[in-house]
């Protein structure tokens, strides 16, 4: 096992399909609902709605929620891995993840099955934007939400999970 903080992206077929992007910070999963999912194109800004913290154990959850505790509907683990905090302040000092979220700018390096490279969460008013930082993992030609629809745990699509 690793002591690096984890991240997970769960595809959730609730009233509206969305991607729940969750990063481990101080023992909980800080969470953003991203309706259109992450884009590898650095010019694309994806709306990310900050939502309730989840328990770390929830990171490996997939199945079909019967009740509304976490929002009803099917869930698959669309991506999972670890991340490195890249957030720096104006003087290039490390800003810890909790502080970064408080200040509204959180930059991370993802090491997932599908998502890699640097990503930035930036608060704008009530909501946040999730943007791919320009680097070798950026690729405007590839839409992973289309090319890589399956769970990294079970291999199921969200439709297959809903029918299971
Ligand atoms: Mn959700």
Automatic annotation (TrEMBL):
Pfam families in the record: LigD_N
DNA ligase D 3'-phosphoesterase domain mapped to chain residues: 10-123
Entries under InterPro entries matching the protein: LigD_PE_domain
PANTHER family to which the protein is assigned, alphabetical: DNA LIGASE D 3'-PHOSPHOESTERASE DOMAIN-CONTAINING PROTEIN, DNA LIGASE D, 3'-PHOSPHOESTERASE DOMAIN
Protein name stated in the entry: 3'-phosphoesterase
């Amino acid at each position: 096992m690793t002591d690096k903080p984890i991240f997970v992206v769960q595809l959730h077929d609730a009233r509206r399909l969305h991607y729940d992007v969750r990063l481990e910070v101080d023992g909980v999963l800080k969470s953003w609902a991203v309706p259109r999912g992450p884009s590898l194109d650095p010019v694309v800004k994806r709306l990310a709605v900050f939502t309730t913290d989840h328990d770390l154990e929830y990171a490996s959850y997939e199945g079909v929620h019967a009740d509304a505790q976490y929002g009803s509907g099917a869930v698959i683990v669309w991506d999972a891995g670890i991340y490195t905090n890249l957030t720096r302040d104006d003087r290039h000092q490390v800003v810890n993840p909790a502080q970064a979220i408080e200040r509204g700018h959180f930059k991370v390096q993802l090491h997932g099955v599908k998502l890699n490279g640097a990503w930035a969460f930036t608060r704008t008013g009530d909501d946040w934007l999730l943007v791919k930082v320009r680097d070798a993992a950026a690729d405007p030609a590839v839409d992973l939400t289309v090319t890589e629809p399956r769970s990294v745990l079970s291999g199921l699509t969200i439709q297959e999970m809903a029918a299971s």
